[in-house]
Amino acid sequence: MSGTEIPFEGVKALDHTADVGLEVRAGSLVELLRRSAAGMTHLILEGSPPDGEEECVVSVVGADPPQLLRNWLRELLYLHEAEGFAYSAAEFTTLDAGVLEAVVRGGADPSEPAREIKGVTLHGLVTERTPEGEWYARVIFDV
Amino acid sequence: MEIRQLDEYRWLIPRQGRMRVDGLIFSDEALMKDIRGDEAVQQVANVAELPGIVGRSIGMPDIHWGYGFAIGGVAAFDPEAGGVISPGGVGYDINCGVRLLRSEVNMEELRPRLSPLMDALHEAVPAGVGRGYRTFVQSEKDVRRILEEGASWAVREGFGTEADLDAIEDRGALRGADPDQVSERAVKRGTDQVGTVGSGNHFIEVGWVDEVYDEEAVERLGLPSGTVTVFIHSGSRGLGYQVCDDYLELMERAVRRYGIELSDPQLACAPIESEEGERYIGAMRAAANYAFVNRQMMAHRVRETFRKVLGRSESELGMDLVYDVAHNIAKFERHSLNGEDRTVCVHRKGATRAFPPGHPDLGGRFQDLGQPVFIPGDMGRYSYVLLGTEGAYQETFGSTCHGAGRKMSRRKAKRASRGRDLRRELAEKGIQIRASSMATVSEEVSEAYKDVADVVGVVDRAGIGRKVARLRPMGVLKG
Predict the structure, then answer these.
(1) From CA B400, how far away is CA B60, in angstroms rounded?
(2) Which of B11, B308, B352, B381 satisfies CB 3.0 to 4.6 Å to B25 for a cystine?
C-alpha cells in the first residue's frame, strides 16, 4: 500500500485494489481519533467537512485502542448514512478505560457524497503508540 | 508463499503453515501476474486455515485483494466438522448480484431513442449515495415483510410476475430468513433504499448481444444477436452493510469464545452450529431477500421506462428476466466430498453459483440448459453470459467468476482519469453515460479493470463455466 497525501495534517489515503484506507499519525489518542474521523469524512465527501452547527453525543466502548477507533468510526459512519450527519469536529468528554464519549459537531452533507463507505473493516486495522511516542492508525474501508 | 502451477489454468497453494486444506487459483500466466501483485494469494491461504473447511480454498481468475476473504473467493464448510460461517466471507453487500433482462427490441431500433431512454432511466431509478427514497416502501414494517418474503413480496404488490420468480436463484427468497435477527439500525437504513442502485461498481447497463457462441442456448435464453438487454447490478444497500457490521462485532466475541485462530481478524466467524452462527445465517438470508427485492423493483422501473420512452406495450417489449444471480452470499448446498454426498455451507465472495444441467435446485426452464451466469466487464468494453457446468460442480462447489476484477486502486484510477473527458471517450465508443457523480465514473474507468474476456476465457477453457454470448454496453447508469 502506498500513501497519498490528503489535506489534513497527519492523514494519508492508502491505495488498496478494491477499497480505500487511511493512515493517520498524531501526538495523542484524542487527536488520532479526530484526524481519523476527518479523514473518513473527506473520503466520503471528497472535500472538506461542513462547518456544521448541529451537535450530537457519541458514546462507544472498545476493549483496546484498535477496537475503540473502529467503533468510533463505525458510529460516525452510521450517523452519516442514516441521519445525513457529516462529522466536522469533536470534543471528548470521556476517553478512559475503553470508554469514549464525545460531543460531535457537524451537519448535513454540503453536497451529494462522492463515495459510499460500506463498512469500517477489521482487515489490517492498527492503532498503536509507536516507540517514538506518537500514535499511529491504519484502517481499511469497504467501498 | 509457495505456489505450484498444475496446468495452464490451475495454480495450487499447497497446504502450509496453519492451512487445513490446499488453495487453488484458476488463472492463466498473464492474469497470475496481477494476482500475485496484491494480497489475494495470501488471503486464499488465510481462508484455508478456517475450521471445518472442506475441499480447497478457491480463487477465481478475477480474484483481487479484499478484506478477510479475497474478492473472487469460494470456500465450503462442513457444519458437522465444526465448519464456520463468516460475515467477511459474504461481504458487507450481502447478495450483491446481477440480473439480466432481455427484450424484443433490436439495438439498431433503440439507438435513435437511446438518449431520452438514458435520461428517463436516470430520472426513474435513484443512483448514488443519496437517501430519502420512499417510493416503494413507506415503513419499517414493509421492510420486515421484504426480509421474510423476498421477491414474492414484490410480485404480490404488482412489481413483477411469477415468471420472474422462476428466473431468480431460490425464487428470490432464501428459506430460513429471520427478520428478528436484523437490527433496528439495519431496517432503518433499508427503509428508504428499496429500488436504488447505490454507488461504487453498481450500475444499470443497457446493452446488446454482439457475439454468440452457442446458437441454441441464446435462442432458449431469448438472446439472439442484436437483442437489447439490461443488466442491473446492486445488492442489499445500507441494510446489508449494517447486518454485516452488526455481526462482525458478534463474531469477534465468538472467535474468542470458541478459541478460533485467525490470520486476519476480518475472517471473524462462528461455528455454523452455534447460537452466533445461526443468528447471522438468519439475518444474512433476510438481507439477501432484501437484495432480491431491490433488484426486482429496479427491474420494474426499467420496464416501465422502456414502455414510456419507446411507446410499446409490455408484450411488445418482451422484457423477460433471463436470470438473477447472487455473487456475495453463503448457501447450504449438497456436494460430493470424497465420494460422499454432504451438505456444506458454500461462501461465495465475489463468485457466482454456476450449477450444471440437471441440478435439482434449477427451475424447470433451466434443467437441461444449466444455470445462466452473468459476468459484467467494465463500462467501456463488454460483458458475458455463461452457463453453469459439471466441471464447476466437481471442482469449485458449483461456482465461477463474477466480473472483470479490479487491477488498479481507486486512487490510481482517478489519477489515470485526470484531465480526460470520460463522458466523451465513452460516447465515441457509442456508449452514453449518466451518473450521479463523475468521481465514481473516474474510479470505475475501463483500465482500472482486467479485460473480462481474459477472465471469462480462463473459466471457459478450464471448464468451470461455458461461454454463450457477449454483450456490449450502449448506455450506462452509475451512482
Answers:
(1) 7
(2) B11
Calpha distance A2→A14 (Å, rounded): 6
Annotated domain spans of chain A = 3-142
Task: State how far residue B408 is from chain A, nearest Cα, in angstroms.
Answer: 6
Minimal CA separation from B282 to chain A, in Å: 20
Q: Which of residues 219-248 of B touch A (CB under 8 A)?
A: 238, 241-242, 244-245, 248
B218 in Cβ contact with B264 (< 8 Å): no
Angle A126-A130-A131 (CA atoms, 0-180°, nearest 5)? 150
Distance from CA of B8 to the nearest CA of A (A): 25
CB contact under 8 A, B131 and A84: yes
Task: Report ipTM (2 d.p.).
Answer: 0.92
Per-residue pLDDT of chain B (479 residues), as tens digits, is 899 999 999 999 999 999 999 999 999 999 999 899 889 999 999 999 999 999 999 999 999 998 899 999 999 999 999 999 999 999 999 999 999 999 999 999 999 999 999 999 999 999 987 667 878 888 999 999 999 999 999 999 999 999 999 999 999 999 999 999 999 999 999 999 999 999 889 999 999 999 999 999 999 999 999 999 999 999 999 999 999 999 999 999 999 999 999 999 999 999 999 999 999 999 999 999 999 999 999 999 999 999 999 999 999 999 999 999 999 999 999 999 989 999 999 999 999 999 999 999 998 899 999 999 999 999 999 999 999 999 999 999 999 999 998 888 888 898 899 989 999 999 999 999 999 888 888 988 999 999 999 999 999 999 999 999 999 999 999 98
Helices (H), B344-437: 390-395, 410-417, 422-428
Q: Which CATH superfamily is domain A3-142 in?
A: Archease domain (3.55.10.10)
- Chain B residues within an 8 Å CB radius of A114: 437, 439-440
Chain A positions in Cβ-Cβ contact with residue B38 (cut-off 8 Å) = 17
Contact A114 B71 (CB under 8 A): no
A81 touches chain B (CB under 8 A): yes
CATH superfamily of B4-478: tRNA-splicing ligase RtcB (3.90.1860.10)
Percentages helix, strand, coil for chain A (3-state, rounded to 5) are 25, 40, 35
Determine the residue type at B198. G
Closest Cβ opposite residue A123 in set B245, B266, B479 = B266
* Pick from B239, B218, B208, B16: nearest CA to B111: B208
B71 interface with A at CB cutoff 8 Å? yes
CB < 8 Å to A82, chain B: 185, 188-189, 238
| B188–chain A Cβ distance below 8 A for any pair | yes
Can you give the residue ranges of every domain in chain B?
A: 4-478
**Rama region for B188: left / alpha / beta (φ>0; ψ in -120 to 50; rest):** alpha
